[in-house]
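Quick one:
INPUT:
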């Protein structure tokens, strides 16, 4: 497995916290169906009006596909200034720092 991390952030007027969890529950469930997704961590900074996520995908190809689709979806909601980066993972060091999910892929 050549897993990669996708990091996405963008300006957001909210909702945040518990309201976000309620408002986006259905969206969160649908993201689980995306090809190659292993997990997602939802991120938010209400003080500076930012939201986004950290995703683990099984391949760079799947991360690129998702980023393209997600960027288009956000733009359709009128959101711009979307930042997305795909990072390779240093598995050896990550496993030393408790990334146990990667140990089984070696």
């Amino acid at each position: 497995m050549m897993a990669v991390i996708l990091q996405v952030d963008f300006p957001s007027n909210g909702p945040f916290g518990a309201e976000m969890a309620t408002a986006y529950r259905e969206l969160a469930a649908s993201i689980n169906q995306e090809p190659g997704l292993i997990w997602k961590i939802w991120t938010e900074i209400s003080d500076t009006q930012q939201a986004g996520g950290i995703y683990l995908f099984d391949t760079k190809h799947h991360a690129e596909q998702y980023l393209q689709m997600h960027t288009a979806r956000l733009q359709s909601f009128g959101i711009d200034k979307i930042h997305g980066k795909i990072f390779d993972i240093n598995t050896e060091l990550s496993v030393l720092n408790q990334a146990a999910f990667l140990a089984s892929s070696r």
